[in-house]
Amino acid sequence: MARRAATLPLYASAAADVLSIDATAGRKPRPMAVAPAAAPREDDAAGVSTQRIVDAITNAIVERRLMPGTKLAETQIGDIFRVSRTVVRQALNRLSRDGLVRLEPARGAFVAQPSSEEARQVFEARALIEAGLIKALCARITPAQVSELRQHLHDEQQAVARTDVPGRTRLLADFHVVLARMLGNEVLAQQLAELLARSSLVALMMQSSHSAEHSHAEHVAIVDALDKRDARAAVRLMESHLTHVERNLRLNPRAHDLAQVLRP
């Protein structure tokens, strides 16, 4: 059995601050109604609220604002989103099925803490999916899609340059989902988004000095290969990119020889 990683020391209020940001982000003034609208069905409203909570927690994980081991208190989340604990539990159950939340009897919900073996499996799954994805996309990508990717790369570069850690983390992850959506396969895009969220949890616990600049440079090379319709190069570059990211995680901290450790 894999040894559980130590829980990171975070307070529940910190999780509340993170989620409250997502709960209020992007809200626009409500337009004035010109005619009375039918009240939404209760189950529809609950479904929308559940999705908002799922999206908020997932975004906070991907952007590395919500750390592994953080307790997700049902009452606090309910207060943040102004929903019942039943709706909160529905959201936490969905996140648990996606591997992003761990539910413990009599203790509650916590942001998951992936083991080293799970981390390897996540990156193996990504490599299998993304190699096929990039090969298929190379055969059908359009000039307009290449332009869209170039704009995404520009946004990545800007976020990296201004040391916008949440922004660059989100953009570097979104790059892979954008590729999937360009195939027109939303199921594939959603599965990849879930794997990327789990990759972010792995990176939070095990990341080393792998630089955002390096990831961005590898994304540029991948888009260059797509632009040239060079499927072999695109697949090789994607596989190399994922390998570099995984290698920069401390999946197996090496126990150095004592003389090597203590030598001046």
Task: Report what the structure shows.
- The protein is mainly alpha-helical.
- 66% of the residues lie in helices and 4% in strands.
- The chain has helices at residues 12-24, 42-62, 74-81, 85-97, 116-138, 143-161, 165-182, 186-206, 212-227, 231-247, 258-262; strands spanning 71-72, 101-104, 108-111.
- Strands 1-3-2 form a 3-stranded antiparallel β-sheet.
- Helix 5 packs across helix 7 (165-182) and helix 5 (116-138) runs antiparallel to helix 8 (186-206).
- It is elongated, with a radius of gyration of 21 Å.
In short:
The protein has 264 residues and is mainly alpha-helical. The protein has helices at 12-24, 42-62, 74-81, 85-97, 116-138, 143-161, 165-182, 186-206, 212-227, 231-247, 258-262; strands at 71-72, 101-104, 108-111. Helix 5 (116-138) packs antiparallel against helix 10 (231-247) and helix 9 runs antiparallel to helix 10 (231-247).
Keywords:
264 residues; mainly alpha; 3 strands; 4% strand; elongated
